[in-house]
Structures are given as C-alpha cells and as structure tokens.
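Lab meeting, item 3. Inverse folding demo.
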C-alpha cells in the first residue's frame, strides 16, 4: 500500500512539473526564438511543446539548452525534496496543468525547508518580495 502511494505521488510530481520544460516557465525567454523557429503553432501546457523542443535538441541555441538543463535540474530537486509535502498537502489535487506545483506553492509557508528551497530555486519561480 505504501509503495503504491509513493509511486502515485512520484508520478504526480513528474506530471505536474513538465511546464518547466515546455517553455511556460523556466526556459521561457531563453527558448522563445527556438520555440518560434521549430515549434510554431504549438501552445504550452499539454507537453507537446516540450516534446517538440526535445526533438530539435541538437538545433537549439546554447541559451535555450542551458535554460532547459536548469529547469530539468529544478524538477529533479523538487521531486526529491517535496515527496512528503506533496503527500501531506496535495494528495487530492488534480495533477494536470501544474496543479501539484500550484498546490505546493499555495502551501509555501507550511512546506519543509528543503521543498520550499527547491520550489524557490526553479527557473521562473516567484521570489518573495
């Protein structure tokens, strides 16, 4: 039972975080020209944009590649550091379209320090005023 819950939470984290790779957040500005060149007409949010950029990975600008790498590292940090918080605060949250990320952000003041730091360090994260 515990293994099934863990697998469900990990799958939810993976599904909730792709917007970082899609260009919605993170690589956004750095990949704008590449998105327009290689993926025109594909809207962010359903994973197709991220897949398109991945298909053109060898053709992307160095700035875009660096931004995508930073976003990937941020997703990994969030997956590693937010498991318990996701189970505690977001078990019933819809996982698509960044629902889990939004849920974690909504509970920012209640998160463990490692999870809070991981969320703050991702590209495109809203920084406290």
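The presenter then showed the designed sequence:
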């Amino acid at each position: 039972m515990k293994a099934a819950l863990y697998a469900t939470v990990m799958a939810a984290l993976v599904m909730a975080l792709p917007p970082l790779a899609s260009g919605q957040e993170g690589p956004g500005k750095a990949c704008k020209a590449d998105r327009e060149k290689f993926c025109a007409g594909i809207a962010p949010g359903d994973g197709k944009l991220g897949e398109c950029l991945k298909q053109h990975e060898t053709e992307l600008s160095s700035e875009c590649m660096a931004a995508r790498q930073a976003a990937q590292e941020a997703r990994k940090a969030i997956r590693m550091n937010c498991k318990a918080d996701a189970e505690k605060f977001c078990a019933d949250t819809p996982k698509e379209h960044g629902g889990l990320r939004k849920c974690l952000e909504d509970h920012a003041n209640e998160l463990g320090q490692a999870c809070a730091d991981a969320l703050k360090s991702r590209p495109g994260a809203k920084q406290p005023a």
